[in-house]
Amino acid sequence: MRKTVLLMAIVCLLSTRLFAQSSQSTVWGAWFHTQRLSDKWGVAFDGQFRSADDVKYLRNILLRPSVAYYFDNNHVASLGYAYIGTNGRSPLDEKTFRPESRIWEQFVISHKVGRNISLSHRFRLEQRFLGNTSTGDAESNDNLFSQRFRYFVRGIVPFKKDSVFSKGIYLAAQNELFLNLQNKSKLNDSFYDQNRAFIAIGYRFSKKFDIEAGYLNHYSKSPNSIYITNHVAQLVVYTRF
Fold it and tell me: What span is annotated as the signal peptide, if there is one (predicted)?
């Protein structure tokens, strides 16, 4: 089963490169926190920082709080908000900035495969409010509303064969597909938006703290119909209370 999870990750990484026309190299960092308040309720937050190509500047800042309802430990529904600030450069190399707010709903299903492999599936619907792009003292009129669907699958394979994994090294493999549902003509004119495949080595210090480092292949279609492969070195921290 470990070979199956690893093969899935390798296939995802290779398949995203077949049609790439341009490439980038970036660094991403992320912190994901979940806080259980009771048997049924909890909150979560993640903060992410993403560089531009060749780590020239900080391109994205993402802040995403949410509230969660636990049907049980393996079935969780969430409602949340996200703020995304995107820094860029104009054709004249002027600094640009575009804010985005999102409301999102998701449902997560978790289960075991075999004795010690954890697998989770996440289904997320986003309502995106993209603001105007500002350049210096000028501001464009390109704000729009759109909706997007995301499907995420993630597997964790501990190196140590225990029925309860509480500490040690593990392999993490995941893939997330993004699909434009509304106003795609004003985004990249495509139902397909992007795909992110990630493979990493992690260490679980306790049931409350994990850290991972690995490679993420980010394959997306740009507004000018160019497919871009973004090679990402990513560091991720998970905390749970």
Answer: 1-20
